[in-house]
């Protein structure tokens, strides 16, 4: 008897796996010696890889919604995991390059872990609708996904400080991160109390 594969491979799934495969490139490119690749070129390549990965994120979601049968449980699980791994890896790399404050990186990464656990808990008790992505979360994502490429690029463009723009946007993302997490936790707290009373 032949075994069935653990999941069905389709275009959105392939894009998600491709995004995961790009994560080591975003970090690894900075370990290439300067005598092999110019540091400015390294910045540009890292930025381009991250942007490409972000584009696959938008594209695989669109395709999964657009075509019947392409939205799978495995894809629904793997897609947000890939996003969080990509962002976390990029932030860790930026901290190592001294382009990002460690506190900001910890706030953003910590929030992602907390909200992921919270959504899993709320789904378990049948109240996942209360912790859907809100507008603050969407704006945070936009600021974050703009800030990281700016900080990876880092070099000024025609006198414009790309690095400064990235730092400002990342701080905005961090503040929105804290507020959006507060909104999610406020919605979930009554259900924590309810579960405690029942137990």
UniProtKB/TrEMBL annotation:
Keywords attached to this entry: Lipid biosynthesis, Lipid metabolism, Membrane, Phospholipid biosynthesis, Phospholipid metabolism, Transferase, Transmembrane, Transmembrane helix
Catalytic reactions of this protein: a CDP-1,2-diacyl-sn-glycerol + sn-glycerol 3-phosphate = a 1,2-diacyl-sn-glycero-3-phospho-(1'-sn-glycero-3'-phosphate) + CMP + H(+)
Example of a GO cellular component annotation carried by this entry: membrane
Membrane-spanning parts: 12-34, 40-64, 168-189
Annotated Gene3D superfamilies: 1.20.120.1760
UniProt pathway annotation: Phospholipid metabolism; phosphatidylglycerol biosynthesis; phosphatidylglycerol from CDP-diacylglycerol: step 1/2
Gene Ontology molecular-function annotations: CDP-diacylglycerol-glycerol-3-phosphate 3-phosphatidyltransferase activity
GO biological process: glycerophospholipid biosynthetic process
Membrane topology type: Multi-pass membrane protein
Main location: membrane
Localisation: Membrane
Record NCBIfam families: pgsA (TIGR00560)
Listed name of the protein: CDP-diacylglycerol--glycerol-3-phosphate 3-phosphatidyltransferase
Organism: Sutterella megalosphaeroides
Gene from which the chain derives: pgsA
């Amino acid at each position: 008897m032949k075994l069935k594969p653990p999941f069905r491979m389709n275009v959105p799934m392939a894009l998600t796996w491709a995004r995961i495969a790009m994560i080591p490139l975003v970090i690894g490119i900075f370990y290439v010696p300067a005598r092999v690749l110019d540091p400015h070129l390294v910045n540009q390549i890292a930025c381009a890889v991250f942007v490409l990965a972000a584009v696959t994120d938008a594209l695989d979601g669109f395709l999964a919604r657009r075509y019947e049968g392409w939205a799978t449980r495995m894809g629904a699980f793997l897609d947000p995991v890939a996003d969080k791994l990509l962002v976390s890896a990029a932030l860790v790399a930026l901290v190592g390059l001294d382009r990002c404050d460690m506190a900001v990186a910890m706030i953003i990464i910590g929030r992602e872990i907390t909200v992921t656990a919270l959504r899993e808990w709320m789904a378990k008790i049948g109240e996942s609708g209360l912790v859907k992505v809100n507008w603050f979360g969407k704006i945070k994502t936009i600021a974050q996904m703009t800030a990281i490429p700016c900080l990876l690029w880092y070099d000024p463009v025609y006198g414009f400080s790309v690095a400064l723009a990235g730092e400002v946007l990342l701080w905005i993302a961090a503040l929105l991160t804290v507020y959006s997490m507060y909104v999610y936790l406020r919605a979930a707290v009554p259900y924590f109390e309810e579960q405690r009373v029942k137990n």
